Amino acid sequence: MVPVRNFGRLRRLTEFKNGNEEDVLWALKDISFEVYEGEVLGIIGRNGAGKTTILKILSRITEPTNGFAEVRGRVSSLLEVGTGFHPELTGRENVFLNGAVLGMRKKEIEHKFDEIIDFAEIEKFIDTPIKRYSSGMQVRLAFSIAAHLEPEILLIDEVLAVGDIAFQKKCLGRMEDVAKGGRTVIFVSHNMGAIQSLCSSALWLDNGRIVEKGTADEVVAHYQNKLLRSLDESACVAERKPEEIGNLVFHFSRVEIQNMLGENTNTFNYGDKLVLIADLRGEPETDFSPEFRIYNELGQLVTTGAYAAFHGRYFSSRTKRIRIEVGPLPLTSGRYIISLSIMLRHRRCDTWENAIGFTIATCQPFKKPYEMPTHIEGACVIDHSFSETN
Questions:
Q1: Residue 298 and residue 378: Cα distance in Å, rounded?
Q2: pLDDT tens figures, 112-132
């Protein structure tokens, strides 16, 4: 009888007393949308907006408290590193296990097996237990299985941030192939460029509610414009809001922007350098690597400061403050937004969108004997020259 009583107590923990929901934080609330066959839907929004919760509900990992999610078709999902893997089984055995879970016959899996292993680039380790794989190897195999075992619906979370740039591009190419094959893809990402290039439509979530659903270009533009408007143009220091942190174990908490003299400022000129001083809170389980992205006023990605890991540099888990030196800035006049991310050795653990902004006041890149136009078209200026030749 004890297990029965404990089950009853557990059920009562989820009940609202006297209908009082004031202190309840809903991951998703009053949302409704449809995704059609062959549609590639991107889901965007700040941390804690409910993006991953939607994928977990569609994958049947989490049951909704209210409402329902109706899914018609065979679903394959990649939500976290190692999702669906048995650590004691080899890579080969896990391929067949995942295929069986998707309802595929052994002959179907065997037909796709070589293609899966070639894509994942782990031929030498296919008969090694998964628990001995690095995080990058696990992600490569997991994505390859999810994308090649012919799911009718493919769900992909930000986990694709793991791995090198070449493999990320390879994954995006494969997702395009899946979409062109008439299958449905739902893609969650903080990378607005990937959303715009891959997705035909987008869903913008904020605090568990839908803000907008429409074409990817329109929704991303509106989302980025709101981020830009919410920035204090005079702010040289930004403090992270508690609702943006949520339950993150390791995260950015504060950032300030300076010039090379160490003075706080958010106004620069073409060719200047800027410095970001970022504070971190929490205790990561491994060493980490930071990243930054710069967006223009239209929400277009101008540049990415690749994870320091790509330069062979990880920071110790004891690090609490980092300095990021950016420039010289080849940017034209206008307003820009900086977003910050943290990558552990096996996953992205934090993205602080719209962290801080800056302005390029003047852009005079060339020595001129005559008056130059005050505005130069485009996002950046590349040094160049002209000369006569035979």
A1: 12
A2: 888 888 888 888 888 999 888
- Token pair listed for 54: 């939607």
Write down all domains in the chain, each with its CATH number in brackets.
26-223 (3.40.50.300), 231-360 (2.70.50.60)
SS3 of 325, please? strand
Cα separations (Å) of 14 from 25, 72, 311?
12, 29, 47
Q: How many residues does the chain have?
A: 390
What pLDDT band is residue 162 in, cutting at 50, 70 and 90? low
Asked if the peptide bond before residue 328 counts as cis, ω within 30 degrees of 0, the response is yes
Q: How far apart are CA 104 and CA 97, in angstroms?
A: 10
Contacts of 2 (CB under 8 A, 6+ apart): none
Contact 266, 357 (CB under 8 A): yes
Three-state DSSP class for 282?
strand
Using a pLDDT cut of 90, give the percent of the chain over it: 4
| pLDDT confidence tier of residue 277, bands split at 50, 70 and 90 | very high
Q: Supply the DSSP string of 333-356, one letter for each residue.
A: SEEEEEEEEEEESSSEEEEEEEEE
CB 300 within 8 A of CB 379: yes
How much is the average pLDDT of 183-211?
Answer: 84
Of 313, 318, 305, 319, the residue nearest 289 (C-alpha): 313
Q: List residues bridging with 293 in a β-sheet.
A: 304, 339
- Helices 106-120 and 91-101, packing angle to 10 deg: 130
- Which residues on neighbouring strands pair with residue 238, listed in sequence order? 255
